[in-house]
C-alpha cells in the first residue's frame, strides 16, 4: 500500500521544483497583474495601499479611447503582419539554400546567418543605429555612392517601422534557420530520389516534398515567431524610444512607458492583458488552422 | 521492347580511394528479370543507382535501346524504381503517391485515374487509395511502392532491396507476388538483394558481385551447380557449401591435418591431373545435400566415406541438418530426417565427389 503511494508521488516530486518556479514567477505574477489591471494602482498606491481602488473595467475602456495605445496596437499589427512572414520565408529560404551543399562554404554560411541571433540585441541595435544615421550612417553612404538619395531610416515616420523590422528579421533568421536546417536534414534522401524519377524538377521537389515535410517545423516557427513579434520591444526601445511621433511604438513598449516610466501600474497591466489575450487568440487560431489542415 | 547494355562501367565516389564498381559489363534482354546479389558493400546498389541516374557513372557506357544515356537525367530514362524504405511521400494519400509522377508528366485527369485504379487493382489496394502511408502496414506500403512503379508503365523496373524491411513470412509471400507481377507485366526488371534465396527463387539470371566486381552471371541453376569460384560457391546455397583443404595424391585426396582421405572419381581425377594438380593442394567444396548417410551410398562408395562425430542435429521436418566434425574441421550434412541421429553419435558419412567442386587455393577459381 505504502509502496504504491510512493510510486504515485514519485513523478510529482520530480516536477515539483520546476512547478514551484513556474508558479512563483509566472502564474502568481500573471494573477496579480490581472488583479492590478482592475485597479487604479499607481506610485501613490504603492506607498499607501488605502488609495488603491477597484475601478472595474475603466482601465480597459480608457485604453481603447487612448490614441497612443491604438497607435501602438496598429504598429504592433504592422510588425506582426510584415515581420512574421518575412522571418519564416527568409529563414526557410536560407535553410534550403544552405542545405543544398555540404562543403566548407555552406558550413561557413550557417555560422554567418546564425551569428546575429547570439548577439546582444541592445549592442546590435546601437550598431544599427549608427548604420541607420541619416547623414553619417553606412547605409545612406552606400545608397549615395550608387546614386540614390538618403533615407531617413529612423527619422521618417513611414520608414522607421521598416527599419526596425529589417533589424529584427536579420536577428531572428539565425535560430529559425537552424530549426529548419535540422528538419531538412531529417527528410529521407530517397523521397527526393523517388521524386526525381517521377520527373519532379528542383522547384517541384521543394514545393511537393520539402515544404510539406517541414509542416511541423513551419508551424512551430510561426507560433514562436508570432508570440515574439507581438511582444516587439527591444528594437524600438533602444533605437527610437517609440518615435518619431509614436510611429514605432509597440504595445510592449507602451506597457513599459506607462508602467515603469509613468508608474500607472493598473493601466499598464490592463494593456499587457490585452496583449496577452491577443497572443492567446492568435495562437489558438493557428492551432485550429493546423488541425484543419491535418485532418482535411 | 527494351534492351539494357552496361559496358565496362566503373564508379568511384568523389572522396573515395578505391572504385566501388569495377569493369561492370552486362547485357540485359527485354522482359528479363535480373537479380544483382552479393554481400553489403559489393557495389550492387551503386550499380542499380547508376542505371537509375541517381549516381554518376565514372567510366564506361550505359545504353538503353542502343542509346548512351550516361548524361540523361533520371526522369528522361523512363525507369521506375522501388526503394528499400518505400520512399512514399508521407503527406500524400496512396492515390496521390501513385499519381504524382503522372501529374508531373502532364497526363490527363481521366488517364491518371484509370492508370491508378488499374494499378491498385493489380496490387490489391483499391480500398486504400485515400489512406496516408502511415495508416498502412509494411507489406501494404511496399505494394504502394510497387503500384507507383506500375502506373508509370515504364519499360524498366529497378528494385533496390524492396523486401528487406519486411518480416520473414511477408518477405516470402511478397517474393512470390513480385514474381507473379513480373510474369503478368513482363517488364524488364533489375532487382538488388543480399539474400541469395530471393535471388535463386526470382531471377531469370543472377549477377553475383563482390568488392565491386562481377563474380559470375548465370541462371540460378548454373550458378548453383557450376560456381565460377570459391566465393560464388560459398555465397549461393543455404546452408552454405562445406570446404576442406586437401592434397591430391595418386587417386585420392588427403586431408592430413584432419586425418582422412577420399577416392576421387575417375573423370574428375583426369581433369585435375591434366590441369597439373597432381600432388598439389586443392580446396574441396561440397554441398550439404551431397553428403550422405544412407547405407546404400556408403556400401557402393566405401572409399568416399569419413568417420565423424555429430555435434548438433537439427530436425527441420522432412530433413535434418547434421553439424559434424572430423578432426578440427566442421561441416554440415543435410540428410533425410528418417535417419535421425542423436548428437554426440559417431557416424560414417559418404561424400559424393561427383558433385564436389574443386577450387585452386590461390586463385580461388573453379578447377572442376
Short descriptors:
heterodimer; A: 296 residues; mainly alpha; MetI-like fold; 14 helices; B: 368 residues; alpha+beta; Rossmann fold; OB fold (Dihydrolipoamide Acetyltransferase, E2P); 2 domains; five-stranded antiparallel β-sheet; NA-bd_OB-fold (chain B)
- From the alpha carbons, calculate the radius of gyration of chain A and give it in angstroms: 24 Å
Q: What's the structural domain tally of chain A?
A: 1
Structural class of chain B: alpha+beta
Strand order of the largest sheet of chain B: 6-7-8-3-9-10
CATH topology of chain A: MetI-like fold
Number of separate helices of chain B: 10
Oligomerization category of the chains in this entry: heterodimer
Q: Considering the protein shown, what is the CATH homologous superfamily of the largest domain in chain B?
A: P-loop containing nucleotide triphosphate hydrolases
CATH top-level class of chain A:
Mainly Alpha
CATH architecture grouping of chain A: Orthogonal Bundle
CATH superfamily of chain A: MetI-like
CATH fold name of the largest domain in chain B? Rossmann fold
The percent range for helix content of chain B is 25-40%
Number of strands of chain B: 20
Shape of chain A: globular
- The chain-level mean pLDDT of chain A equals 86
Architecture per CATH nomenclature, i.e. the level-2 architecture of the largest domain in chain B: 3-Layer(aba) Sandwich
Order of helices and strands of chain B: EEEHEEEHHHEHEHEEHHEEEHEEHEEEEE
CATH class of the largest domain in chain B, named Alpha Beta
Tell the overall outline of chain B. elongated
Protein name (chain B): sn-glycerol-3-phosphate ABC transporter ATP-binding protein UgpC
GO molecular function, one term (chain B): ABC-type transporter activity
Domain ABC transporter (chain B): 4-236
Organism (chain B): Leuconostoc litchii
Amino acid at each position: 500500500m505504502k509502496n504504491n503511494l510512493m510510486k504515485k508521488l514519485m513523478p510529482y516530486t520530480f516536477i515539483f521544483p520546476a512547478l514551484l518556479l513556474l508558479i512563483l514567477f509566472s502564474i502568481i505574477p500573471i494573477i496579480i497583474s490581472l488583479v492590478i489591471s482592475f485597479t487604479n494602482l499607481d506610485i501613490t498606491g504603492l506607498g499607501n495601499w488605502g488609495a488603491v481602488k477597484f475601478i472595474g473595467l475603466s482601465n480597459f475602456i480608457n485604453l481603447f479611447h487612448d490614441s497612443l495605445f491604438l497607435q501602438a496596437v496598429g504598429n504592433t499589427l504592422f510588425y506582426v503582419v510584415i515581420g512574421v512572414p518575412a522571418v519564416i520565408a527568409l529563414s526557410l529560404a536560407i535553410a534550403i539554400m544552405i542545405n543544398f551543399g555540404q562543403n566548407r562554404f555552406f558550413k561557413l554560411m550557417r555560422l554567418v546567418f546564425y551569428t546575429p541571433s547570439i548577439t546582444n540585441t541592445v549592442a546590435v541595435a546601437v550598431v544599427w543605429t549608427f548604420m541607420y544615421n541619416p547623414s553619417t550612417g553606412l547605409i545612406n553612404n552606400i545608397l549615395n555612392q550608387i546614386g540614390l538619395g538618403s533615407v531617413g531610416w529612423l527619422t521618417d515616420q513611414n520608414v522607421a517601422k521598416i527599419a526596425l523590422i529589417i533589424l529584427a528579421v536579420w536577428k531572428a533568421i539565425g535560430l529559425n534557420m537552424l530549426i529548419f536546417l535540422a528538419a531538412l536534414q531529417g527528410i529521407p534522401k530517397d523521397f527526393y530520389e523517388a521524386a526525381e524519377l517521377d520527373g519532379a524538377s528542383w522547384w517541384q521537389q521543394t514545393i511537393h516534398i520539402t515544404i510539406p515535410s517541414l509542416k511541423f517545423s513551419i508551424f512551430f516557427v510561426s507560433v514562436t515567431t508570432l508570440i515574439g513579434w507581438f511582444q516587439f520591444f527591444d528594437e524600438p526601445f533602444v533605437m527610437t524610444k517609440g518615435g518619431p511621433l509614436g510611429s514605432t511604438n509597440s504595445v510592449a513598449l507602451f506597457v513599459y512607458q506607462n508602467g515603469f516610466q509613468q508608474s500607472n501600474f493598473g493601466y499598464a497591466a490592463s494593456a499587457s492583458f490585452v496583449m496577452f489575450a491577443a497572443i492567446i487568440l492568435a495562437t489558438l487560431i493557428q492551432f485550429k488552422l493546423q488541425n484543419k489542415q491535418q485532418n482535411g | 521492347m527494351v534492351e539494357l547494355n552496361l559496358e565496362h562501367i566503373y564508379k568511384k565516389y568523389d572522396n573515395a580511394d578505391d572504385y566501388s564498381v569495377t569493369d561492370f559489363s552486362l547485357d540485359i534482354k527485354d522482359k528479363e528479370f535480373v537479380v544483382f546479389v552479393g554481400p553489403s558493400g559489393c557495389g550492387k546498389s551503386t550499380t542499380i543507382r547508376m542505371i537509375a541516374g541517381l549516381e554518376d557513372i565514372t567510366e564506361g557506357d550505359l545504353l538503353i535501346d542502343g542509346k548512351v544515356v550516361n548524361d540523361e537525367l533520371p526522369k528522361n530514362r523512363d525507369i521506375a524504381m522501388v526503394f528499400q524504405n518505400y520512399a512514399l511521400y508521407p503527406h500524400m494519400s496512396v492515390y496521390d503517391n501513385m499519381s504524382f509522377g503522372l501529374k508531373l508528366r502532364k497526363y490527363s485527369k481521366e488517364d491518371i485515374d484509370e492508370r491508378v485504379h488499374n494499378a491498385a487493382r493489380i496490387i490489391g489496394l483499391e480500398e486504400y487509395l485515400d489512406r496516408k502511408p502511415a495508416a498502412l502496414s509494411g507489406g501494404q506500403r511496399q505494394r504502394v511502392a510497387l503500384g507507383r512503379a506500375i502506373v508509370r508503365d515504364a519499360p524498366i523496373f529497378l528494385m533496390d532491396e524492396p523486401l528487406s524491411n519486411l518480416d520473414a513470412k511477408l518477405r516470402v509471400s511478397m517474393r512470390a507476388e513480385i514474381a507473379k507481377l513480373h510474369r503478368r507485366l513482363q517488364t524488364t526488371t533489375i532487382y538488388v538483394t543480399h539474400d541469395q534465396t530471393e535471388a535463386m527463387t526470382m531471377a531469370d539470371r543472377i549477377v553475383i558481385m563482390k568488392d565491386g566486381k562481377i563474380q559470375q552471371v548465370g541462371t540460378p541453376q548454373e550458378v548453383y551447380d557450376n560456381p565460377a569460384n570459391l566465393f560464388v560457391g560459398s555465397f549461393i546455397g543455404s546452408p552454405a557449401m562445406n570446404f576442406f583443404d586437401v592434397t591430391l595424391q595418386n587417386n585420392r585426396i588427403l586431408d592430413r591435418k584432419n586425418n582422412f582421405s577420399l577416392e576421387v572419381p575417375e573423370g574428375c581425377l583426369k581433369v585435375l591431373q591434366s590441369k597439373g594438380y597432381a600432388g598439389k593442394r586443392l580446396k574441396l567444396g561440397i554441398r550439404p545435400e551431397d553428403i550422405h548417410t544412407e547405407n546404400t551410398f556408403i556400401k557402393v562408395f566405401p572409399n568416399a566415406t569419413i568417420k565423424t562425430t555429430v555435434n548438433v542435429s537439427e530436425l527441420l521436418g522432412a530433413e535434418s541438418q547434421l553439424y559434424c566434425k572430423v578432426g578440427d574441421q566442421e561441416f554440415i550434412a543435410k540428410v533425410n530426417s528418417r535417419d535421425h541421429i542423436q548428437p554426440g553419435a559417431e557416424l560414417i558419412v559418404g561424400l559424393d565427389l561427383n558433385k564436389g567442386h574443386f577450387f585452386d587455393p590461390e586463385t580461388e577459381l573453379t578447377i572442376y
